[in-house]
Amino acid sequence: MTASDSEFQQPVFEAQADLSKQMRVFMLGATGTIGRATLQTLIDHGHNVTCFLRRKTEATSNSDLIFEHPLVTLRYGDVTDAKSLSDDGFGHENFDIIISCLASRTGVPRDAWAIDYQAHCNILQAANNSGVKQFILLSALCVQKPRLEFQHAKLKFEQELIASGLIYSIIRPTAFFKSLSGQVERVKTGKSFLIFNGGRLTACKPISDRDLAAFIVKCLSDRNHWNKILPIGGPGPAIAPLDQGNYLFLNLQQKLKFKSVPLWFFKAIIAILAFGGRFHSRLADQAELARIGYYYATESMLVLNPETGRYDETLTPSTGQDTLFGHYDQLIRGEIHHERGEHSVF
Ligand SMILES: NC(=O)c1ccc[n+]([C@@H]2O[C@H](COP(=O)([O-])OP(=O)(O)OC[C@H]3O[C@@H](n4cnc5c(N)ncnc54)[C@H](OP(=O)(O)O)[C@@H]3O)[C@@H](O)[C@H]2O)c1
């Protein structure tokens, strides 16, 4: 599916949404970055949320305060097992809506097809069996130009959801703050800011976790967000990597120090890993991770204009109030920290 498809429409933000109606929500991916923010917003609006989680070891258990709220019910099982989903998850109860912020943690092909596609098919099947009428899916804007396995997996499920007959809202956000903050610590410690081909090759309209969560929760009741694919970015103009670096150096009162990495270097690494991947599956996975890195270094997270075939800032809708540079200020002051899982690539 591409940006030229008919479902691909700009959301109308002025529409009135009845956010006061309490709903029974079945939620997947509640322990992830956007899942947590969405769960918090659902609680703030008084919805009852059943979170279906995988069990974790003691050291990384799901026992934090958000999950102890009286409106939240925790159920444990395996999203890759259809029976576990319906027995341990849905438990033959009725829910008004499914919200999925579930996503492969690694992005490697096996995991992407198992989670971004097959697990979601299981969820859709269980939803149909238990009479759920509505499904909100967190997807990604990059699927508009699919080159990577995880994008094909997401896109394939998007198509299944559209064909399912349920009311759907497929949300395709641009870049998250966490994905654009990896170099703050580098720069703080006096290192250079890495860019590709001069730092103006790509741009995005970064969106904060809570602004995206508010947008997701609005889809519960705002009919203008139903049966649509919704690309969405944060407030303000599009930002290129060079702008991010400039802002950091200015605010840390440091001299500009960029290191421009040539794209051929990236391509060479991919070629070497891909060759090794013919013999070792670990190297094949690393080649895919390098391809993911190359994709984000060369493709903008903005809506593709179907007429020009170019990324277009003006076609990329905005929502919310939080800015990436405000987020950088907080990171610089040490008011917040990023918790990037070891195995988290997105
Ligand atoms: N990063 C970006 O800039 C960006 C931009 C646009 C769109 N997106 C998309 O946004 C989506 C969500 O991103 P995120 O950063 O919130 O994801 P995340 O933090 O990696 O969270 C992933 C969620 O999925 C769950 N999950 C993964 N594998 C599972 C499995 N085998 N069984 C059960 N649960 C599993 C995780 O549970 P555990 O806690 O148990 O692992 C977690 O709750 C992704 O589809 C991503 O492609 C990202």
Layout of helices and strands, plus pairs?
Layout: E1 24-28, H1 33-44, E2 48-53, E3 72-76, H2 82-90, E4 97-100, H3 109-129, E5 134-138, H4 149-163, E6 167-173, H5 184-188, E7 193-196, H6 209-218, E8 228-232, H7 241-251, E9 258-261, H8 263-277, H9 281-298, E10 303-304, E11 311-312, H10 324-332
Parallel strand pairs: 1-2, 1-4, 2-3, 4-5, 5-6, 6-8, 7-9
Antiparallel strand pairs: 10-11
Short précis:
The chain is an alpha/beta fold.
Characterization of this structure:
- This protein has 346 residues and is α/β, with parallel strands linked by helices.
- The protein folds into 2 domains: 24-177 and 207-232, Rossmann fold (3-Layer(aba) Sandwich); 241-332, no CATH class.
- The chain has helices at residues 33-44, 82-90, 109-129, 149-163, 184-188, 209-218, 241-251, 263-277, 281-298, 324-332, and strands at 24-28, 48-53, 72-76, 97-100, 134-138, 167-173, 193-196, 228-232, 258-261, 303-304, 311-312.
- The strands form 3 sheets. The chain has a 7-stranded parallel sheet with strand order 3-2-1-4-5-6-8, sandwiched between helices. A two-stranded parallel sheet has the order 7-9.
- Helix 2 (82-90) packs across helix 3 and helix 7 (241-251) packs parallel to helix 10 (324-332).
- The longest helix is centred in the middle third of the chain and has 21 residues, at 109-129.
- It is globular and about 60 Å long.
- The two termini are 22 Å apart.
- Bound molecules: NADP nicotinamide-adenine-dinucleotide phosphate.
